[in-house]
Amino acid sequence: MAQQLLRRFLASDVSRKPSQGWWQPVPSETLQTPQSSRTIYTIRISSTTFNIQDGPDFQDEVVNSETPAVLDFHAQWCGPCKILGPRLEKMVAKQHRKVVMANVDVDDHTYLDIESEVLVVSTGLAMKNGDMVDKFVSIRDEDQLETFLKKLIG
């Protein structure tokens, strides 16, 4: 279904390139559309927050990263996760790129929550140099999150 929508989008007349801002080019070969040579632009909400797509993405963006990372294990159906996620993202943004935030949907990536020993959502993990250094479970207020992040940044 998604591939059909992507093909329809690529076939449409999308010729206007965004002028500036948060737009980042994604070459069409990355999207596996050999019939098109167009460049698609995607928007990234924050330069410090991203969604984990798969195992290799987790390795590249979190485990092998020189920047400490906070992992937000969440689910779409989880009420507390909907409160914690934006709050944690706001606190990470205040750290001015000293730490990044990776969103992990536990329904899409069950292998990651099993490997990370995440038993409940919402759970936050702090990783530095590929090692887990701290963890919290459930909602935290901004002061607690700030202490958690300061400890990670050290």
Automatic annotation (TrEMBL):
Q: Which PROSITE patterns match?
A: THIOREDOXIN_1, THIOREDOXIN_2
Q: Which domain of life is it from?
A: Eukaryota
**What InterPro entries has UniProt attached to this entry?**
Thioredoxin-like_sf, Thioredoxin_CS, Thioredoxin_domain
Residue span(s) of domain Thioredoxin: 20-154
Q: Give any Pfam family that matches.
A: Thioredoxin
The alphabetized list of GO BP terms reads: cell redox homeostasis
Any one GO CC term of the record:
mitochondrion
The record, for Gene3D superfamilies, names: Glutaredoxin
Q: Which family is annotated?
A: Belongs to the thioredoxin family.
Name the chain's protein. Thioredoxin domain-containing protein
